[in-house]
């Protein structure tokens, strides 16, 4: 995965500053030259209608004027954020889009030719509810490109160890996202900690280790270590593993639309993201 351009979604809050600064520092390590800061402006007539339950509809000339004022204000704030988070050798391009429709994030990734998305969760317990007309959960399910989700606490962009949870029961097609993770780790010269969680005792630790080694060989993974853990819950296992081995990032695979609640081991990516302060790299498998 070569991150030729990074897209950062921003709502101009503190978490957006954290995500933007993280993206800028990461861009230097990935040798990425440009970051697009995307802010979506919901037209004033839609905001007013939503706030009043449709009871109040101001004249068009009033809402048009208000939209112009809001647009210029957002543009100024976004430009200030770009300057504040700038890094040598990395261009931060502020973009305000008036979002009349609930545009899919993939539309903007394609429009700006970006192949890595970085976004923030308001806190470690819940997702930012309104982003691109969708909840973050839906965003994770639908996005076609790799994405990094951050919490609202400043974190280091030094990524030396990445924890990757593997489901050995998935076929090659369902494990396609592993390639994205390994390429990302390679760009950062990061060590991959491959983890298989034995949830129901249907496989021995010895067998799991052998299969993980074979998977690493088949996928030409070089800088890695093998780990197994018995736990009925994936997110609980990841929390315990993270406390013991302190990885810099967690990587998870999602199987795409309609399967968010059936990721690896039938667990939920959202639960893992909500429970950790570390950045979470989410790769689409199908």
What does this structure look like?
It is a single chain. The protein has 286 residues and is α/β, with parallel strands linked by helices. It folds into 2 domains: 6-150, HUPs (Rossmann fold, 3-Layer(aba) Sandwich), CATH 3.40.50; 161-284, Rossmann fold (3-Layer(aba) Sandwich). It is 38% helix and 21% strand. The protein has helices spanning 14-30, 44-52, 60-84, 105-111, 136-142, 177-187, 205-218, 234-245, 269-274; strands spanning 6-9, 34-41, 91-98, 116-120, 147-150, 161-165, 191-198, 224-230, 249-254, 280-284. The protein has a 10-stranded mixed beta sheet with strand order 3-2-1-4-5-10-9-6-7-8, with helices on both faces. Helix 1 (14-30) links the parallel strand 1 and strand 2 (34-41). The radius of gyration is 20 Å and the shape is elongated.
Helix content: 25-40%
> Any idea what the radius of gyration is?
20 Å
Going by CATH, the architecture of the largest domain would be: 3-Layer(aba) Sandwich
- Number-wise, the strands total 10
Number of separate helices: 9
CATH homologous superfamily descriptor of the largest domain:
HUPs
Mean pLDDT over the residues: 79
Order of helices and strands: EHEHHEHEHEEHEHEHEHE
For the biggest sheet, the summary is:
10 strands, mixed
